[in-house]
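During the reporting period the student researcher (J.K.) took over the structure-prediction task from the postdoctoral fellow and processed the backlog of single-chain submissions. One of the processed entries is reproduced below for the supervisory committee.
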Amino acid sequence: MRGRVKITDIATELGVSPSTVSRALSNGGRISQQTRQAVLDLAEKWGYKPNPFAVNLLKKQSRNIGLILPEFTHHYFSKVLDGVNRVVNEHGYHLFINTHEGDYHKEVKAVNMLNNMRVDGIIASYARGTSDFNHFLDAIEDNVPVVFVDRMCEDLDTSYVVTDDFPGSVESVRHLVNTGCQKIVHIAGPENLSTSFNRLTGYKEGLKQEGVLVQDKYILKSEDPNWKESLEFLIAENDVDAITCFTDYLAFEAVEILKRYGKSVPNDVSVVGFADEPVATYMTPALTTVVQPAEAMGRRAAELLLWHIENPDSPEVHSECLPTAMIERGSTLQTRPQRSFDELISVLKSAS
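J.K. obtained the following structure tokens:
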């Protein structure tokens, strides 16, 4: 035979129906052992290979998984992507990657496209402006499981994997107070993100545990176009001695503002970030930050999604919180010997 051997070719040669050949190849149906063996022998002789698309269609599976991230140029989400991709490849699935760049409408378009492609499941980190989750609900009602990563959603009964940001935020505030800071500013993230809420709540709890009054003037919203002016006012009034930030990138901006006002970091003002992006080590001084196990989060999200795919009738919903840990660098005064990155990874593994 020349070209790709088809089931119809084998059926014609043996004088049987294509459905008989299909049943023989899949070891199913009521056919004689003699016919089954004849089909198998000819298939082997002619080098027949099943069409994976046809097989998956028969099984009602595409072996495709959709991934929706805000973006993957930043280190954090690229590591999430690495974790997802590793598990997906190990289990013989194909990954379709989409980014919404923080745009709700792009997110809706991506979800609808993946649903129309009949992917077997979707892993998503929804946009900061998302408050209507009907597009995800449509996919779920079409029997396409959805697992959120780095986000949780109270509006949908879906599994999710996040990092335990609350204790990491508490730890950063405790560290600052223990080094003598009392006027601690928090630059918060987008209000509708669970990560923003947990980090802000951890900041407040950390202050309460250390007996420091929580004051609204020290809570700046990064979505407010005037947050930098508010920070500059506090700096000019010498009304800030430490800053905790929703992300390392906000911390970088805060440090640049402090430098413009002639403030020394950390002698005048200490700064703490979140996530441990590469910028944290490139800054001068290097940034104290809370490390998140991004790759592990991506792996667990993919593993949970595969579990849902393999158990489509199960009503179980899984929620997982992976541990965080603070690493001290030059942007804060030191209270203990600095932990190496390897030591930090060991702490995260033992806590999980």
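The committee noted the following: The chain has three domains: 7-50, 64-163+294-322, 165-293+325-351.
J.K. will present the remaining backlog at the next meeting.
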